[in-house]
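Methods — Computational structure assignment.
A single polypeptide chain was analysed. Its primary sequence is given first, followed by the predicted tertiary structure written as structure tokens.
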Amino acid sequence: MSLLVAALAAMTWCGRFPAEAHGSSPEKCFTDKLNSSTADAEIRLVQHHQSYTKVFSGITVTVPRGWDLAKSLTYSENSDEYRRAMHCLLLGSNKKISGNEWRLHNPKVTAMGEWVTVEYNSLTRIEGGGFTRIGPWVFSCANAQKWSVELKPQSFPQIHWKRVEATLDGLNFNDRSTPVASYTDEKTLVWTEPSDKKPEHINFDVDLSGRHTFIVASNQPLSGRVGIAAWWVCATFVIALAAFRARQSSPAIAQGAPGPEQRKPKWWVVGMRVVRGDSPAGALFHWSLLSTAVILMLMVIPPDPGKRLRNSFICILAGLALLLVARPWRRGVSPVATHADADTDRSTDPDAAQRRQARAVIVTACAVAAAGMLALLCHEFYGLPANLASGQAPTVQGVAGLMVLGLATVWLWLAALVAWAWRFALEGGLVRTAWIKKWDDAPGRCTAVAGILVAMVAAALLASVWRSSRLQWTRTNWLAEGTGTFNHASYINQFMADFSTTDLRWFFSRSWFLTVIAVLALLYSRVRTQRAEAADKDEQVSLWPGGPDTLLIAALFSFLVGVRGGKTAGSSALYGFWIPLNIISLYGILALGRRRSILGQLGECFYSNMLSSKKRRRELPSKAQHYRYLNHQLYLLDQGRGGSATRQQLEGELHRLHQWVATGCDGKMPPPEQISILDIALAWGPTGHWWSNAVRAGRLAFWFGLPASAALTYVDLRDPWDRMQSLYLPTGVPDTVLGFLLNQLAWAGAGFVLGALWRLLPGSSSPVRAWSLVVAYAIPVCIALLLNGITDTNLTEVILYAVLMLSVLTLTSMLMDTVTFRRELDLWPSRFALLLSIYQVRGFSTKIVWLLTQLAAVIKILQDLHRS
């Protein structure tokens, strides 16, 4: 069926290719009538606050109407006459523009009197060595320290250059022109040559600064791969350590085998259990190692066109293995099961439901892999060469073969990611019972539905590659479509042949979000275990995250929130250091803020006496409500509207409330006078367990983060270069969509961490707790400020991200306070009125001013970015 669909699509595809056109020879450009033409040229380099050098080129050519093709320049841009005339004027005998040259818009043509003027602007970026052409300019980058720039037009050398200007943005230069520039300052070179001078005499060298040389060297493909590898290796180490600690400290594991002694097993015993993958911690450990191995494999595979057949075999086999190793039919371990019981369950054969699930997944995966293998083994049947792409236009069978190969490979890898996500969620208890029942009752139907959805995503990626290949061909051959000889179908064939190999790196490098799912599953599994065993022993569960839980939360913070700050350093080679920096930063904030938190100042004795039972915890919101009522009565009394109550009575009741707090401390450590019972209620949060607070805060932050994600998407696409990359690259549009979703995950992750650490963060006011996480994010950024002195990157986007995160978390914390007193919602017309009551008049106005200040800061930063 998939082959039939691919064949039908191939017929439609091949039918849309334009026919091969006959080219026009340079002799038909009538160059003998252009002796009176003039031209101006401008080149501008932008390198400050950039991770690469932007190059803008502008050329203005004025030709006489007596030129045979001058009138054609005024025709429609889609006409063959226009393309022929513009081709002669800009490219001469060349077939197409440079692949590195990007035009912002089509040339502007103005006809006035006896002259026709053409203005053509383009841009590119230079990241390293090699040869780059843009417009009439040629960059020769022998190394990362010195570039040679020469005015070397492709068209008519007899055109007279009236003015040539080069703006170098403060870079050191050496003018080697003959004659030298007529005007020179620190940033600009200007040549105003007589009409008898020729353009080939204009050339100069540019010496990069030490900071920019570092950026160019560190952003080379090898350095980028080293940075990605370092990120994955560092993430693997953190995840392995977290999984080991979580498994070692698990209460169920601590039980061990039945016996008189109840102690934790030795570290090597725990390590073996983690390695076997018999728990969510083990699954997380396995995924961290496997994903690192896979990403290293993808980076090691050379992108050699002659090795496409071999690389495709490797990718299909790797995708199949990645899917089968996930074992999505595996069941989660009960949170109250002992280690011995778990081993007993796994020693038996899988039940009938598991066998059906395994059969459905294995048969489907092998069928898809077989389709891809047949396309490779029978490539001659499809009319494909050994490298899967040739210089000739592919046949219908060839296009169908490439489609089957690409869809099969990408399907396997996408299905593998889905399978791992399902296994993490299933073992961690994140899957709804109804979904598990459907998976048990109808595994074939569930596999078919999931497979169709994955196929739709794979087809969307294939469509994106096809669309971008057409746009790229149009961009580089826009003047040759009607007159050139370049084969459109062959060009797209090259893109399609690489779809099943090189583009795998793109979406698998984003698969780190599976680590986030695995960490959440492990956290929830530990919470379920703690709750179940506390219920059996009639004990109180943990009121805040323990040591292993804190490490997992810090890893979440680093993966979701801190990863965007890695751009600050301006070098992808430094990404690997960002994970430990964010984890250490969050631990430092917790170490400093735990004692200054509300519950930390009250001490262990208070929450043991007053918050250890549900009855006591239920008294806390009621007493906090009474505290607010008394303060409001005092406010009315000051206004002369206090009623029959006297100040002494109201103050006496407030004193008794404070005595209730003091009683909870048993007199061992009197509570600070500035801590009120309202502060304690707000510091406790909406629910009794830290996990519930975390989930609630994460949901709120997700919805509050929608405008922030839209703002960040605008910032990412505000630059013309970034917009063109999004439109023209094969993964540009999917990357934009995925970037928006990852930003949403970042806000949800920040809210989750805020809720999980709610009782450990300092501050008597809930919005102050949001500051703590922003500071934890800002500490690595401040360290990056030191690197900024080396790399000269722009911190405006990082500052914007920090301000947006502060705004999202501030709104989340304020709404969390209303949820804390949700039982009073029936007494107030709206949440806004309840919030006003919680914060009182003066405190509420201060927080509103603070929010408006953040909003003004965001608008100001966006305006500055728009102008830049």
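Note: The first strand starts at residue 38 and ends at 46.
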